[in-house]
Amino acid sequence: MPPPIDIYIGDIVQMRKAHPCGGDTWRVVRLGAEIGIRCLTCDHKVLLPRAEFERRVKRFVERGSQQ
Ligand SMILES: [Zn+2]
User: Fold this and answer.
1) What does pTM read for this prediction?
2) In angstroms, rounded to a whole number, what is the distance separating the alpha carbons of residues 35 and 51?
3) Quick one: which of 65, 61, 66 has its CA closest to 40?
4) How far does the centroid of ligand 1 lie from the alpha carbon of residue 44, in Å?
């Protein structure tokens, strides 16, 4: 298993699969057992278990603050 990745509030991530609205970039808005992300295109918010978030992320577009 790969080591867990660091995730920060404000990170902008590109997902492997596009959202139904056509957007594929999301902002991390909540950390915890579940990661909250908000679609930058339609503003829809979803919660994903961390493991699923890590599976779905294609790349980090921008890193948030490391607080
Ligand atoms: Zn969307």
Assistant:
1) 0.88
2) 9
3) 61
4) 6
